[in-house]
Amino acid sequence: MNLFCLCLLLLELLDRVFGYLTVSIEPLPPVVVGDAVTLKCNFKTDGRLREIVWYRVTDGGTIKQKIFTYDAMFSTNYSNMEDYRRREDLVYQSTVRLPEVHISDNGPYECHVGIYDRMTREKVVLASGNIYLNVMSPPTSISVIAADTPAPFSRYQAQNFTLVCIVSGGKPAPTVYFKREGELIEVVAVAEPPSASITGTKNSRPKPLISRDLDDTKMRKSLSLMDFQDRGRPFTENPFKSITHDSGLRASPVTEAISETVISREFPRWVHSSEPTYYFRHNHIPMSDGTVEVRATITWTLIPQIDDNALFSCEVKHLALSMPMQSEVTLAAPKGPKITMTPAKPRVGDTVRIAVHGFQNEVFPEPMFTWTRVGGRLLDGSVEHDGRELVLERVPAELNGSMYRCTAQNPLGSTDTHTRLIIFENPNIPKGAEESNGSVSHCDRFGLIVAVIITVVTELT
Description:
The protein is mostly beta strands. It has five helices and 26 strands. The strands form seven sheets. Strands 11-12-17-16-15 form a five-stranded mixed sheet, with no helix packed on it. Strands 1-3-7-6 form a four-stranded antiparallel sheet, with no helix packed on it. The longest helix has 19 residues, at about 440-460. Residues about 75-90, about 200-270 and about 435-460 have low confidence and may be disordered.
């Protein structure tokens, strides 16, 4: 007992000689970007105040940036301090106000307080407190895209389909989930993308069927194409007889109205009667500004006749949001491509551009386009051309009346549209020069025949 009392007397004696100082910073809940924040440093002492210094700590504690200083020796400004007396002690509060916090303000802060030593004015007793300011940032953008697009339409084989939800600008990482027609989708979480063996499909991509002659799922053919079949070979066999002159007959619309090929949506070989299994995965990508980008994916076996026109949404919940964010997409096969031709009345030698400018409906995901020439190869000798636009450079007269097919397809379906190329005579090009690909004019042919006859007669004589 005597020893305990002696220790208490010794502590009291040291306290009277050196004084005491305790520092603490009031805790703060997480704050949101743009909020005004006040950091409060409370310290209690019976000594004489020397200085107060606030630091912002960066780079894991290796760098301390001074953001506020109060020096009692040279300053009498107490605008940032309040003092009041409790018993025989002085209790102070120093505040630092951040009027609009940014994501870069996130991190630890320290409050250092110094008082004079009672034994000598040359020594300063120091104490400090610290706090971690947690700055939250709500997501700034959300979007839904389809993975591995553009992709063809598979008529005879089931294929996987993946939606990707990209959420940027959030801190901490938000919670992401998917809905179908407004109903939450029950998912199976996986660490890696589901393999083909899990979903019952193969990795091999089906070859797109671009030829209607090989497509046994069509319901009807173009009426114009049937006319060609009934008449035998197209009338473009003798191109010079079908060139339209500007001064003569006026051509019908350059893009001829040809009925669209309709694709059957029957898939008896792989139709699933039960609900598909949705596989969900996500990963977090730290960004340089301290936020996190979240990429969430959902994968399932696509059933075009069921999933076409289905509404999918990605929704995000975050502590800094009062209500969820969402982005919606409607899966839709392409229908009714709108084709334009430039120039509207092409002439021999012009460069013709045939392009798809939109559809009759909103298409998702982005379709792929394949161009073919009905009954022959393209101008460059290729069988098909991929892309939204087909360019025919310096069109010859032989292409007059030729028909071009555009196949637009995505994993939900496929559709064809045809357009006919009508070429007008070019007055700037001599008629004999209109023939291309090394063809010989009528005059040249006649001269060649005469030369051969003269040579034969000479040999006989």
